[in-house]
Amino acid sequence: MSTPVIGVLALQGDVREHLIALAAADAVARPVRRPEELAEVDGLVLPGGESTTISKLAVLFGLMEPLRARVRAGMPVYGTCAGLILLAEKILDPRSGQETIGGIDMIVRRNAFGRQNESFEAAVDVHGVPGAPVEGVFIRAPWVESVGADVEVLAEHDGHIVAVRRGNALATSFHPELTGDHRVHALFVDMVRANRTPESL
Asked: 66 pairs with which residues across the strands?
């Protein structure tokens, strides 16, 4: 079976860390900045960063509509922190001009766990990730206020939803790419492998 090609949206945020984590999880990892690069990947990671900036740059680079189309068509996608916000259908407190890609029927709250100086780490039990709890790094992290009926809650912290999955879309409030533990990325790589058609293998 050939190795899946997974892109990391490289407009802003912790792109390098995701590229390293994906490679460690046995994927071919590529930065994605243009629609033609998006067309060449089997799955995509939306990294942490500033969700408003990423959304505005996606529009500027002509990526927003192609992103929405690929996600609607079932391309596997994984969003961390700001990426989780981008996958939401609704943001409770959006900034002016902020758009989302959508893909997960959820309502999210930006910076819900506090500002930069209130960042923290916590052990998180993530359904579908075997072994010990995942060490979650929460940096100006959002949480999920509510989810639709077809969304699976994978993890909670302090009574708040911090990891979800809907079909081929995965999202976490925290940053597993910053810890050296690549199990969440391995879960996503497995999702991408399972989604590939026999013709693409």
From this structure: none
Q: Is the pTM of this model over 0.85?
A: yes
Stated as kind and residue range, the H or E segment containing 160 is strand 160-166
Instruction: With CA atoms as reference, report the closest residue to 44 among 171, 137, 178.
Output: 171
Report the C-alpha gap between 34 and 53 in whole angstroms. Answer: 16
List the catalytic residues: 81, 175, 177
- What does each C-alpha distance from 148 to 56, 71, 110 come to in angstroms? 26, 17, 19
Alpha carbon distances (Å) from 109 to 2, 70, 134, 156, 190? 39, 25, 22, 15, 29
Q: Which residues contact 146 (CB under 8 A, 6 or more apart)?
A: 106, 107
Yes or no: say if 195 and 128 are a contact pair by the CB < 8 Å rule. Answer: no
198 pLDDT band (50/70/90 cuts)? low
Q: How many CB atoms lie within 10 A of CB 127?
A: 11
DSSP state of 112: T
Residue 1 pLDDT class (50, 70, 90 cuts): low
Q: From residue 72, how far is each of 22, 88, 93, 167, 192 by CA, in Å? A: 23, 13, 24, 11, 15
| Cα distance between residue 144 and residue 173, in whole Å | 8
134-138 and 169-172 as β-strands: parallel, antiparallel, unpaired? unpaired
Other beta carbons within 10 Å of 197? 7
